Description:
The protein is α+β, with helices and mostly antiparallel strands. It has helices at 2-15, 47-55, 60-69, 93-98, 107-118, 178-186, 203-207, 218-230; strands at 21-26, 31-36, 40-41, 72-77, 83-90, 123-133, 136-145, 152-160, 163-171, 189-190. Helix 1 (2-15) runs antiparallel to helix 2 (47-55) and helix 1 runs antiparallel to helix 8.
Amino acid sequence: MRQLKRILILVIAMLCVAVSAYAVRLDEIGMEITVPEDFVNLLAEDENANALFEIYQIDKDTFVQTCNASGIIYDAINADLSKEMAISIIDNATTQTVGNLSSYNPFDEFLEEYKSQVETEDYRFVSSEKYEQGELTFIHSVLESTQTEGITIHQYYTIVNGKAITISVTYYDSNYEEQELVSMVQSIQFDQIEKMPNEDINFYVIAGTVGVLVGTGIVYLIYKLAKRKTTPKEEDL
């Protein structure tokens, strides 16, 4: 346990950032979002992220491939490993037909079907609501892990400029900070929001573009690797 604590303290020291918050630019969707100071983007060429991969001997190329396969364009963890934030996109004929969720009708039917889509065997649906911010419309959902007590997910889903975007923050210790999360969502800005035609489309096909995004689960992986290093081997007993 002492070794585990020393490893985590070292990681925390390496992940600390000197500013209070910083803007993340996502060129793939023409979006910018401001995140807390201690969030480290694991997909960036960053010495703090690279140090974490090195300490836990995690293959970064494999990690990046996993994110790419899941449509994840941003995945970050905070300094004390209690939160993971992931942003993913889906860009296909269906999302392009929808255009923008803010102008989709009937929205209430979409919301009801969305609720049935996000709940899975691993995650229990808690609540879901419409969240509006200027020209943007999100579905804000809260889910809890059915496998591990204390894990809560806050997920914001929208469709903008023909792309489905999911912003998900996983709290690994249930220490939900509402103001921090709201501030991040309120900071979201797009270069432009195109006026796109809302064509008729099979509603259930649209619902198939949503789901639970929980990032790559790298925090879990880190804890498992750290515990493995501190678990006595049978020959030592």
